[in-house]
Write a structure and sequence with these properties.
By secondary structure, this protein is an alpha+beta fold. The chain has four domains: 259 residues, no CATH class; 133 residues, no CATH class; 104 residues, Tetratricopeptide repeat domain (Serine Threonine Protein Phosphatase 5, Tetratricopeptide repeat); 83 residues, no CATH class. The radius of gyration is 37 Å and the shape is flat. The two termini are 69 Å apart.
Length: 662
């Protein structure tokens, strides 16, 4: 019965639902309140003034102002009294509401009470056709017009599907399908605490003689099948009851639909927010009324606006709300052509990324963030290069000495400690550096390269500090094997135990073997030559792990792993500044080629496609790319100036001064 009713309801109320489906409840992050917008639109159709808001159904929606719940129409007009709670099934059945006095009743679409009296509790009962209600602590059932089907004489009521307890083979043999059981029986507990099963018109099917739910649901139903369940399911009175409940529901839905049609069905007209030049600068206006402050300049983009006040830059949303205050030296769209929703902000030589809604994408500022190429970008943080995706998220597992994302084959290459690897766009190493180091150590001769072999294995432990890739445990076990071969079993045991504690099974077996050998035999003397080799290995050096407490990685090593730029002063090398200058030069070249349609390529579905100039970029994207070109050129000039202070003269590139005009 329920399936048929649901299908009819869908056909019946679809046109009503369609009217309100394009107003979507949306959270305003500035006020932390909900309002309504048309799907994929920026402007508010209904202002964000609600603590919570539901989707529109039947041209009405439930909202909460923080104190009360009530209903509004598509134009935001309040159409119901205040309630403590409102329950709606699909928008066309009656509303079940809890009044301010705590009592419940059913209401039609004009919010007139349906039941003559209110009840302690009321709720839809496992579907849309009947409701449970509570009076004086006991429960009963009623239809959607308030007619009592089961009087309030039970402690508990729940809808029970007796099909499986009765046995599907037996039911099938008797011509009874599963559909006949739907909404047919109610499991009930009487005042004495005994359980039984009744029909929707309170006819007892399984007597109230059972002490728990399981027994009455399975044993009771199975036992009563032949005597009461089967005759009832095949009887005319069940068909009459089903038809009566369905007719009541359809009358109720039809009445509510007719009443709801008196509310507005058109969406509210929305006045757009625009930027206008004023006597003192630029400002946002809506309906010829200024919104917010006046700024020196406002650069409008699809998802945000870059604002300038007193020479400092900030971010506003397209409606004129300032989401990032004007305190940055410069702000520009960072991922032009790849979403235009990430912005690069610079303040006192530090860089950070923001989402278009003003959310900062990284908690720690960077020394430099380069413009993205090949759909990924690079940032320098704590002296290391990190890979970031076009959304501004750091994706590399740790920092590198350098990352090159400018290759013509769209590949990304990284370097660290003299080792090279290729990175996937999500930051994973194609040929892990830690594996390269491990393989080198493994293949080294112990007799000729004991110290270097040891150092390589120790480097592996630093590159895999949490044993995520398993190389820390492998390396510790192999160091133990080195010392065992060299005759220092005590030192070997130390490393075996560290590897075992990381879950290495080979190390566990090695420890077990050594303990067994010690128990059976006295420790044999090892040749003086091998002992001397073992003693020459320097194990005093400390190897700082790459994983810091902050979650970032460091590549500082003592002794043989010094990665500092060298020298006894704070001056940086020519190579360092030239690398920075070349990277910004490639950024400028990429922007120039994109703007002039020369050599610029993008990839779509794995195929190369030509770039485009002003005609197909659109005004906002074209101006944004020009801004990025100027940004790269500014950084080139500043990099050469900083290099000169350190005593280095970097030749000027043509891309530092090149210009594009349309």
């Amino acid at each position: 019965m329920k399936r048929n009713i649901l299908f009819l309801l869908w056909i019946f109320c679809f046109s009503q639902f369609a009217n309100g489906q394009y107003l979507v409840p949306t959270l305003d992050k500035t006020t932390n309140k909900y309002g309504y917008k048309e799907k994929d639109k920026i402007e508010w159709s209904l202002p964000p003034i609600y603590k919570s808001a539901h989707h529109f159904l039947g041209n009405l929606a439930i909202v909460d102002d923080g104190e009360y719940k009530f209903m509004i129409d598509l134009h935001g007009n309040k159409v119901s009294p205040n309630f403590k709670n409102i329950q709606s099934s699909s928008g066309n059945e009656p509303y079940v509401c809890q009044g301010l006095d705590g009592n419940y009743n059913m209401y039609d679409a004009k919010f007139q009470p349906i039941c003559k009296t209110s009840y302690q509790y009321m709720s839809y009962f496992s579907g849309f056709n009947v409701l449970s209600f509570q009076s004086e602590g006991l429960y009963g059932l009623m239809d959607l017009e308030g007619n009592v089907l089961i009087p309030p004489v039970y402690k508990k009521l729940s809808l029970e599907d007796c099909y499986y307890p009765c046995g599907w083979k037996r039911c099938k043999k008797d011509g009874i399908d599963h559909k006949l059981f739907s909404d047919a029986f109610v499991l009930a507990q009487n005042k004495e605490g005994k359980y039984g099963i009744v029909t929707l018109n309170n006819e007892v099917i399984v007597p109230f003689t059972y002490n728990d739910l399981y027994k009455v649901a399975w044993k009771g139903a199975k036992k009563a099948y032949k005597e009461t369940i089967k005759p009832y399911l095949l009887s005319a009175k069940k068909k009459e009851l089903d038809l009566r409940i369905r007719e009541v529901q359809m009358r109720s839905v039809a009445k509510n639909k007719e009443l709801a049609m008196t509310y507005p069905t058109d969406l509210p007209v929305v006045e757009k927010t625009i930027v206008k030049k004023t006597k003192n600068g630029f400002a946002f206006f809506k309906a010829n009324k200024q919104v917010g402050k006046t700024y020196q300049s406002i650069d409008s983009y699809a998802k945000c606006c870059i604002i300038n006040s007193n020479g400092k830059y900030g971010i506003a949303d397209p409606l004129g709300t300032e989401v990032v205050s004007c305190k940055y030296d410069n702000i520009s769209i960072w991922n032009i052509g790849m979403g235009d929703d990430v912005l690069l902000a610079e303040k006192q030589g530090k860089y950070s990324l923001f989402h278009a809604d003003g959310t900062k994408l990284s908690t720690k500022d960077c020394e430099m963030i380069f413009l993205p190429t090949n759909s990924v970008g690079v940032a320098i943080k704590d002296g290391q290069y990190w890979l970031i995706d076009f959304k501004g998220n750091i994706v590399s597992q740790h920092g590198y000495d350098n990352i090159d994302n400018y290759s013509t084959d769209y590949r990304i290459y990284a370097e660290m400690l003299g080792y090279k690897t290729e990175l996937s766009p999500d930051g994973k190493e194609i040929s892990p550096i830690v594996k390269q180091v491990f393989d080198e150590a493994y293949n080294m001769s112990l007799s000729n390269n004991a110290q270097e072999k040891y150092n390589k294995y120790m480097l592996c432990t630093s590159l895999d500090p949490n044993n995520k890739e398993g190389y820390r445990a492998l390396s510790l076990n192999n160091i133990g094997a080195m010392f065992e071969d060299l005759g220092d079993v005590d030192k070997a045991m130390e490393y075996y135990e560290q590897a075992r504690n990381l879950g290495d099974e080979t190390a566990r077996k090695n420890i077990k073997r050594i303990k067994f050998d010690r128990t059976i035999n006295a420790l044999q003397q090892v040749g003086n030559a091998l002992q001397q080799v073992a003693q020459t290995i320097d194990t005093s050096g400390s190897y700082t792990t790459l994983l810091q407490s902050s979650g970032n990685y460091d590549t500082s090593f003592n002794d043989n792993y010094d990665v500092s730029t060298g020298g006894n002063s704070n001056k940086l090398s020519y190579e360092f500044w030239k690398q920075q200058y070349d990277r910004w030069e490639r950024n400028a070249k990429s922007c120039y080629e994109a703007l002039t349609n020369t050599g610029y390529k993008t990839k779509k579905n794995g195929q190369d496609t030509g770039g485009s100039a002003a005609g197909s970029w659109g005004t906002a994207s074209f101006s944004g790319m020009k801004m990025n070109l100027r940004k790269a050129q500014k950084e080139m000039r500043e990099t050469r100036a900083k290099a000169r202070k350190d005593g280095h003269n970097i030749p000027q590139s043509n891309y530092e001064t090149i210009n594009v005009s349309y």
